Amino acid sequence: MDYYLRGELAKESGINFETLRYYEKIKLIPMAERNISGYRLYPKETLKRLKLIKMVQSCGFSIDEIKHILYLIENPVDCSTNSDEIIDRKMNEIDKKINEMTYIKDMLLEIKNHLKKQNCAYFLSLLS
Question: Which helix (H) or strand (E) holds 5?
């Protein structure tokens, strides 16, 4: 099969119809060709692109960042010099979130310990 119909592409990629339409609208994937009956036909490369988009999205990249990454991939000269910046920025964001979550976890452990000891006075002191 050289082409996927929209339903087939949605099933294979795990992305719903509306998202496919949206991705076309914002030019994340190329516009589909149409057959004689008017059905959208997507080349196999679109499925590969969608799998890449999902992978990058699962790393926390926004649509704009994904567009930038796709641009870098499609322009190898720029890719080698500019890819570190976007990846490093995302890793820094993740490090910040890890620190925030570690802080929250520590606070939860402290609360748990006070509650285990039935140390309600501690919580009352926070309210005063």
Answer: strand 3-5
Judged against a pLDDT cut of 60, whether residue 4 lies above it is answered with yes
Strand order in the sheet with 40-43: 3-5, 40-43, 33-34
Helices and strands, counts by H and E, the chain: 6, 3
pTM of the model: 0.75
3-state secondary structure of 39: coil
DSSP 61: -
Give DSSP secondary structure letters for 1-42.
--EEEHHHHHHHHT--HHHHHHHHHTTSSPPPEE-TT--EEE
Number of Cβ atoms within 10 Å of the Cβ of 46: 21
83 contacts 68 by C-beta, under 8 angstroms:
no
pLDDT tens readout for residues 68-120: 999 888 887 766 667 788 888 999 999 999 999 999 999 999 888 877 777 67
Quote the tokens at residue 4.
């996927």
Q: How far is Cα 55 from Cα 87, in angstroms, rounded to an integer? A: 14
User: Tokens standing for 17?
Assistant: 């119809």
